[in-house]
Amino acid sequence: MAGKRNQLGAGVILSYFSQGLQILVTLFYTPIMLRLLGQSEYGLYQLVYSVVSYLTLFTFGFSSAYIKFYAQAKVEDDPDSALKKVNGMFLTVFSFFGLLVLILGIVLVIKTDVVLGKKLTSDELETCRVLMAILVTNCVIHFPTIVFQNYVIANEKFICLQVLNLIGIIINPCLTFPLLLIGFKSVSLALVLLAISVIKFFTFAIYSVSKLKMRFDFHNMQMGLLKDVSKFSFFIFIESIVSTINISLDRFLLGRMVGSISVAVYAVGGQINTLYTSLSTSISSVFTPRINAMVASGSKKRELSDLFIKVGKIQFSVLLLVLLGFTIFGKRFMSIWAGEGYENAYYVALVLIWPNTINLIQNIAIEIQRAMGLQKYRSLMYLGIAIMNIIISCIFIVQWKEIGAALGTAVAWIIGSGFIMNWYYSRRIGLDIKKFWLEILSMAKCGIPLIVFGVLMQHVIEKSSLCVYFIFIILFAVLYAILLYFFGLKKTERITIKRQVIAKLKR
Q: Which of 148, 259, 399, 438 lies at a CB distance of 3.0 to 4.6 Å from 208, suitable for a disulfide?
């Protein structure tokens, strides 16, 4: 038991460290990579990656089911035999999925020109064909890796998991830079990704079989077990479709309708949204075990609402600082970070992060919904949002290119997450949505002086030296903290913070 606690504790610490390192690597590595690579090559990589990412859907949601059925096998009368059957079934199924992806991947390589459309030159199409072959191979290797990786997670060997993640984060730029310098261009990104996947596959497989004694039974496949897994995975599969569409759709549509340059600009703006999202999920993930325990113990909906509001306010306090800060200082930041040619990336990021804030401050509701076994409605509703996203984005791209693609996604998010899901959280789950938004709006008022500050100082901020620019950012952060404390928080919350600070100072 102590060993498991140590694994969990170390895993959590390494997880936060990995997340922080990933943000730092992204901030420092991306601008250098963009300048070495060029807009067109980066756009081609992002375009092909968006297409190949759809092949990961051929897990059919099964990857999320392994840990559940591993736990069930452990409580069987003969757990060793049951676990061998589970392992054998999952490895067989995922190997079949991998073979299916390989066949589809070969078709994609042969028909690259048909898939990507007529906006690319013959040289660009040839580069895309090479990228497609490498990334499809990477995807095929990923499928059996999932089984071994989930076995490691099920055994709570979090140190191994996070160490491998850290290695991947570190070696990515270390291998990519030399390849870029000798002229491999976008192919270098794909080759490094493939190398990391190969390392992970062999490490997880060897560790699982030799260290954790993972065993398989391929002869007694139980169709009933496969049926149960399929039922469990169905709505997870739908959510995966939606997630993949939301992440990759815009880049694919831009590639077909506009060209590689627009894909590159959109991808850079999308990276800001990805970093923004990570700030929220790192907070909400800590509360997931508590939510499942509360639901399992029959906690009242009022208690769940209180936790929902509490976590949402914590998330909003962090996100509001970044949201307003990027809105005011982001245009100058993007010109420094991404360089010339990526001016519209600022507007792409703005259009994405503002409506995404609704999703992020309410992602605890998703965990509550899953714990209550009510994921069906959300899955189907988000599928509708994804379809809406496709239609709106196609219309807007014609008029506004990469900004139009972001607008299509934003409109779909506002309608789906902002209105429909809030209605559902209130009526079906029983969360106090009215109180939630009153609390959030009460906090948001502290941002009004900062917006005024940003508007008045915008010309000075854009034309100032780098030193003055960073001084403005520091002053902005300090001013935000003061305004949030005195005008955004309740008296009881200020007292709690004061007590915690005093307690730490006395130590």
A: 148
Higher pLDDT: 174 or 376? It is 174
Return the half-sphere exposure (C-beta side, CA atoms, 13 A cut-off) of residue 159.
Answer: 8
Distances (CA, A) of 446 to 9, 62, 86, 423, 487: 36, 45, 54, 27, 6
Kindly state the tokens that stand for 95.
Answer: 């190997």
Find, among 172, 141, 164, the residue nearest to 52 by Cα: 141
CB-count exposure of residue 149 (10 Å: 0-12, 13-18, 19+): buried
pLDDT in tens, 279-297: 887 667 667 667 767 877 7
Residue 9 confidence (pLDDT): 55
Q: Does residue 464 contact residue 472 with C-beta atoms inside 8 Å?
A: yes
Compute the Cα dihedral for 432, 434, 440, 442 and give only its sign: negative
The answer to which of 151-165, 230-244, 488-502 has the lowest mean pLDDT is 230-244
Return the DSSP state at 486: I
Q: What angle do CA 139, 58, 105 make, to 5 degrees?
A: 50
Q: What is the C-alpha separation between 507 and 499, in angstroms, rounded?
A: 13
- Single pTM value for the model: 0.82
> Do 70 and 84 contact (CB within 8 A), yes or no?
no
Interval 11-32: pLDDT, tens: 556 666 777 788 888 888 888 8
Helix/strand/coil for 480: helix
The answer to whether 144 touches 94, Cβ cutoff 8 Å, is yes
102, 140 Cβ separation under 8 angstroms: yes
Single out the residue of 386, 353, 391 nearest to residue 270, CA to CA.
Answer: 353
Query: pLDDT (tens digit, 9 = 90+) per residue, 381-431?
Result: 878 888 888 899 999 999 999 999 999 999 988 998 889 889 999 988 889
The phi, psi pair for 104, rounded to 5°, reads -65, -35
